[in-house]
From TrEMBL:
Keyword Transmembrane applies: no
The organism's place on the tree of life at top rank: Bacteria
Originating gene: gshB
Biochemical pathway: Sulfur metabolism; glutathione biosynthesis; glutathione from L-cysteine and L-glutamate: step 2/2
Keyword list, A-Z: ATP-binding, Glutathione biosynthesis, Ligase, Magnesium, Manganese, Metal-binding, Nucleotide-binding
Catalysed reactions, semicolon-separated: gamma-L-glutamyl-L-cysteine + glycine + ATP = glutathione + ADP + phosphate + H(+)
Swiss-Prot/TrEMBL cofactor(s): Mn(2+); Mg(2+)
InterPro entries per record: ATP-grasp (IPR011761), ATP_grasp_subdomain_1 (IPR013815), Glut_synth_pro (IPR006284), GSHS_ATP-bd (IPR004218), GSHS_N (IPR004215), PreATP-grasp_dom_sf (IPR016185)
Residues covered by the ATP-grasp domain: 124-307
EC main group: ligase
Name the UniProt record assigns to this protein: Glutathione synthetase
Lineage: Bacteria, Pseudomonadati, Myxococcota, Myxococcia, Myxococcales
GO CC annotation terms, alphabetical: cytoplasm
Length: 312
């Protein structure tokens, strides 16, 4: 089976950490052929999506990949499976890519995650489809409302709704010096900020739960490094072994039906203290850390699911 991976340049891949690379390696090990393209390589030709793609082989370090073909123009629907794994930001170019992929013939080609679902699922705000699962949250550009929220809850995390990888996160406390200036930064130019009540459990880390078609593949606890409040692994955080507790299972059981309905198959839930904080749908990571801590098996499950669901 031929699989097309729409992703960022392979030269940027960290082979021991990157989830997309791990999936490509697993598919290749099962005898499937891999094709690579960037989202900018997509075009509409007479209303049909086409892509300039190259066949690729992933290899052990240091030569982590090798091209097996020259760039070829192909109809996207000719690939039984397309993995949309371009990293955020979700900007105009990303939006255009989802519009093009909307035109894929779904009777011939499976796109993971569904472009319509990805476009409709802001990674910060989608969690608020389930407000009962989330910490107290305000999304606003009104500085008075944001200040009142901070004062009401004592401490809050301010996030740009379109932020990614921990960028733009600010920590606000009632009574702190410069609170108004901090809120001005968070809402500069009339931008909205997502203010969430600070969860003390964040000091112990946040839990990344990877889901496949609404079922957990595994989880890791991401713990921030020295001098850093954010738990992102690329910011010096470390992954620790963890297990799903009853609060986590409640979250999974609640969100899974909507994820399936929206075509969001491969998803990362961020959970702190039993509260859902984000739903990652563009290119969620963590599968290599899960396998390193819990043993192999997660990638194989993704491959087997894809083989069952492929149109041909």
């Amino acid at each position: 089976m031929e699989l097309l991976f729409l992703m960022d340049p392979l030269e940027r891949v960290a082979p021991d950490k990157d989830t997309t690379y791990a999936l490509m390696r697993a598919f290749q090990a099962r005898g499937h052929s891999l094709w690579f393209a960037e989202s900018r390589d997509l075009s509409l030709v007479g209303g049909s999506p086409f892509v300039v793609a190259r066949q690729v082989e992933v290899r052990p370090a240091p030569a982590i990949f090798a091209w097996l073909s020259e760039p070829v123009l192909r109809e996207v629907s000719a690939f039984p499976v397309v993995w949309l794994r371009t990293d955020p930001p979700f900007d105009e170019a990303y939006l255009e890519a989802t519009w093009i992929l909307d035109r894929v013939d779904r009777s011939r080609c499976l796109v993971v995650n569904d472009p319509t679902g990805v476009r409709g699922a802001n990674e910060k705000l989608y969690a608020l489809c389930f407000p009962e699962l989330c910490p107290p949250t305000l999304v606003s550009s009104n500085r008075r409302l944001v200040r009142r929220f901070v004062e009401e809850h004592g401490e809050a995390v301010l996030k740009p709704p379109n932020g990614h990888a921990g960028s733009g996160i600010l920590f606000a406390q009632a009574g702190m010096r410069g609170l108004d200036a901090l809120i001005e930064v968070a809402t500069a130019g009339g931008s909205r900020t997502e203010a969430q009540a600070y969860l003390p459990e964040a000091k112990e880390g946040d839990k990344r739960i990877l889901l496949l078609d609404g079922e957990p593949l595994g989880a890791i606890l991401r713990v921030h490094g020295p001098g850093e409040e954010r738990n992102n692994l690329h910011l010096g955080g470390t992954a620790e072994r963890t297990a799903l507790d009853e609060a986590d299972w409640r979250i999974v059981r609640t969100v899974a039906p909507k994820l399936r309905a929206d075509g969001l198959v491969f998803v990362g839930l961020d959970v702190i203290g039993g509260k859902l904080t984000e739903v990652n749908v563009t290119s969620p990571t963590g599968i290599q850390e899960i396998e390193a801590l819990d043993g192999p098996g997660a990638c194989a499950r993704v491959v087997e699911w894809t083989e069952r669901r492929a149109q041909r």
